[in-house]
Amino acid sequence: MDTCWLKEKRDLFLKNVVKDFLDSCSFFTDLKEHTAKYGVRYEGFDFWVGTQQDKGKLWHLKDICHVLWGDSDPARDENGFMLDWMIGAIFHEAMKLKENAYMIERYRKSYPSETKLPLHPNNNGDGPGMEFFEETAHEIKRAIKRIDLLLEHAGGYLIEVLKQEKENALLVRYLLEAMNSPAEHWPGETGPKRLLDALFPMGLDEAYCLAGESYLEGSWFVEARKAFEMALELNPNCTEARSGLRLLEKRVKEIAMVLEREYEIQAKNGISADPVR
What is the predicted pLDDT for the residue at 39? Predict the structure, then answer.
């Protein structure tokens, strides 16, 4: 693989890893709760797992992790190596769960009631049919437990990986924007907030300053101002945020002066500033 290309895209790939991981956790949490109350459902598996022709969130996550850490040496990069392994294991468990969910939903009409499994055609509850569906139901329960545990461990390795990525402005911007997402994104905790706290243990004002500088560099002035002001709200003594706001005001004034000069030149040359109608 072209290492230069990978290095150029690394920040974006890491941001996508986090986004797809959080989306996968969110879907799985909903699936787990629904299964506990009503039984497994097939709906949503195409979004989560997908197909060879139309990959889902988890499939994309597995592929990106393998691009980033598929060649990792566990002796040098244990966290990246284990994260790639865990996500691959989750994907394969989810594929089997998808197949079993389809089997249950496809033949749900065979169930004598909402709480019982399909009976053998002779209706005495014996035979290979009953045994097969009982085993499928048990496999679904086991798969959900395994995926739940694997996601928890994968989340821990992801945090350790991201602790080295606090200068990744794309990632930090995404996490800050996603902080208002539902708490179900991460089992037991709000995912974006948990990740940000791991990246910036001294306070999130540092994260907002990094985001503000990134927005400012891209001329996203409204977003930059909001980020710097949020940093000051969290830490009124944040000199970085005050410097960022001063630089922002300077940039805005410079742009205003350029536009004003352009308007004056057009006026002198008799060119209307209004667009041609």
Answer: 86
